[in-house]
Structures are given as C-alpha cells and as structure tokens.
Amino acid sequence: MKKTIQYGALALFCAQPFAAGAFEESDYLSWFKANQDAKPQFVDGDTITFDKAELVKPFIPAEYQSELVYQGMEMKIKDAGDISPPEVYKVATEKFKGQAKIAADGALENYTAGRPFDPAEFKPGKEDGQKMVWNWNFRWQNAGLRVGEVHWVWVRKGGDHNGHEIMSEGGGKYKSFYTGGGSFERVLTGPYQRVMFSHRSDLEATNYKMNNGEGFAKDTEFREYTGFTSPFDIAGTAFLILRYDDPRKTDDSWAYIPSLRRVRRISVEVKSDSLLGTDHTLEDFYCFNGRPLEHDWEYVGSTNILAVARSRNTHTIYGGPNGWVPVNDDWALRKTDVLKQIPKRSNHPYAFKYLHIDRDSGECYFANAFDKGGKLWKVWQLSKALTDDPQFKAQATAFDGVETPPGMKASSFQSINVIDLQNNRATLVPCRGIGNPTPQLEVVKRILDVNYLTEGRR
Hints:
Elements: H1 9-14, H2 25-35, E1 47-49, H3 62-68, E2 74-77, H4 87-95, E3 101-102, E4 108-109, H5 126-137, E5 144-156, H6 169-172, E6 183-196, E7 220-227, E8 238-244, E9 252-257, E10 262-265, E11 295-307, E12 318-319, E13 325-326, E14 330-343, E15 352-358, E16 364-370, E17 376-386, H7 390-398, E18 411-420, E19 425-435, H8 441-448
Parallel strand pairs: 2-14
Antiparallel strand pairs: 1-2, 3-4, 5-6, 5-19, 6-7, 7-8, 8-9, 9-10, 11-14, 12-13, 14-15, 15-16, 16-17, 17-18, 18-19
C-alpha cells in the first residue's frame, strides 16, 4: 500500500496560482528546501490526473505548478532508463579525472575532455557553483546539434489559435502539434546549427579537437548559427556566434540584417536582449548559452523534479488551457543539480536565474529568471529526446534532418519553451529535423563562416 504523502504549509500555498509579480526568490527556495528530500508516492506506469496532482507537486517547481496542473491534465510517469552519455565521454572523464582546476577569476584551466568535476562531491556555495557551470558548459553534446526547422511561436494567454495560418500550413501537418488554448500572435521559422570544435571526447586521435585544432578550428570551442526563413519581414536574418577556447576571451558575434544587406557585429548586451521580439534571448538557448565568466555562480543543491527526459513522441505536442505546456508525454523523475546564475553586468535584464541540470545527462530541464526588483519574470521548460530511440530517428527523416551516428547517443533537444509570467505570453520553440551529425570541416566552413552570412540564407 502506498503511504499517504504529507504536506506542509508551503505545499498548500503552492497549490494556489500566484498573482503576477507576487512570487519572489524566497518562494522558490522555500519550495526547494521543503521538497528537496521528498519521496515519490507514485510508481512507474502511473498516470497522474488533476485529482491526484498533490502527488506530483513536490517534484514540480512551485512557479510552474499553475501551468502544468489543470483540469484535464494527464501526466504519465515513466522511468527514462539510462540517458547517461556514451562510453567515449565516460572514458575521457575517467582519463582526465582530477586534472581540471578553477583559476582565481573562475576560469577553467588544465581541462581536456569529459566531465571536469564530480557533482556528487559538490557542496552549496560559490566554489562549487563555478565547478558546476563548467560541468554544464562541457556536458556531452556529441559533435554539436543541427535543426532543420525551428518554430518560434508567440502564444498569448487566452483565446484560441485554430484560425492561425500555421494550423493549415503544409496541408495541416502542424495542426496535431498545437492543441489546447492560447492565441498565436506570430510564428517565426528557421534553421539552427552548433558545431563543437574542441574538448571533443570522440576525437581522441586528433587531441580531442576537430582538425587537430588547426585552420578554421583553431582556438575555437564552438560556432553557432541561428537563421530565419519566415515570415517575410525577417527572412534572411541570421546570427553567428564564435565561442573561443580561451574562457577569458569575449565571443565574436555577428548578425546579418537583410534590410541593410550588411553584416553587423553585435555586442554582449545584444545577446541578452529579446531575440526578434520573442521571450527568448540568444543567451537563454539550452537554459544558458553565455560565457561563464560574465556571471557569478552558486551551487544550491540537488533535488528531484519531473521532466520530459525521454519523450515518447516524435515531436513535442502542446496543450493545456493556454496551449504552452507539453502533453501526452512521459514524465520521468530525475535528480537535478540546481545552479544559480548571477549576471555581473549591471544592465543585464535578469537579477538572477536558477537552472535545474540532470545529474546523469548534464542537460537542463527547467529554469527561472527574476527581474531587478526580485520578482519572478520567466520560467523555462525543456523537453528532451534520446537519439537512440526510433521516434527521434523518425523526426529527422520527416523534416529533412541528419541522423545521429550509431553509438553517439545524446539527450537531445525536442523543444525549449519559455513563459513570460509578467506579460502573460509564451514563446514555444519546438525543434524538428534534429540531428547530431559528425560534421566535415569543409561543410562547416561553408555554413559557419562569417562571410556566409552576407548571403542571408542557409
């Protein structure tokens, strides 16, 4: 017989929706501390409906409960199995164990490949916060990520989206992905690609670097392309980021603006601004996509949360009252390490942000951000798929993606979804045609060279 779960005053408080601007950091930390050691009162295979929602609230961050818990909800509990990185990453982690060090300024030194530090040894505080962010930065990412089609869907709370053109586009091929309520204001479309050049666990023969770290790959950690093909007023707009292997060296970043027919350098401030009017920033990709040294970091501790860690669907299906939460999917209980991000720049839009990072896969499932007044501003939920699963391979084929090589399993993107709770709007970012290919240098150069941006297309 299952035990009856015990709830304190916090859990009762969290059962009620909070007013916009009323939720503060203390509320999040109260949920975290009260439920850090919570034991699940559900088992693998259970389906949690609204009348049983109290069972899952200890494992859903308080600020996301009012979105995920609603009349008509069905949350299927299913263990994600082994989603740890492949053997090449584990071998590199063991080979270089104990060699990586944190410098006085927080930079990572003497690092080659694999996971730099063991999170099982972390204690709350800034010292291990610095270690945790470098674990995050060098999580297993295979050779990178390529997405053939990314949608950026602006969803306003209330109303419906049945009449939006995306529901009939392509003979209605997207209609089944966008269920529930919410009104669509705008849908942007375009491709994305990131290629990792250094600290590649799969490239032992070339010193863990693409092209042995020479030529186009010299001194580079990664290059990242974000493009837009529609709607017409932004078609051709593209962004390119070059992250240097030297953690102290600022990124080189460019944007191609079709109306100007010019490539412009963009500043660090632009990467934390709204991306083309969405609720995301370039720095919010993956949960955090910025340079670690531009922020202070604190390790908060670990806790279990429910996450779409190994989706059973080929693509994210959205639903709920506002159409901005994943539905009809599997939710796994995952141990996450919680990391606090504190921007050093006074003009950064966030005062601080919390990230929940999977202990095994290294991927982020949930994040929140607070404004300069200390009020909750945004929450992110990320759905993941395992590259070894047949449904992942099916989506690559359906949307002209590139398959991931056998044996290079990765916990890959399916979607990243942000809700601006102060603006009652969300930006959904489902990714289709996803692949983790092994890139060829000559092909990479044609896509990720700044000179390519002048063409304004991909």
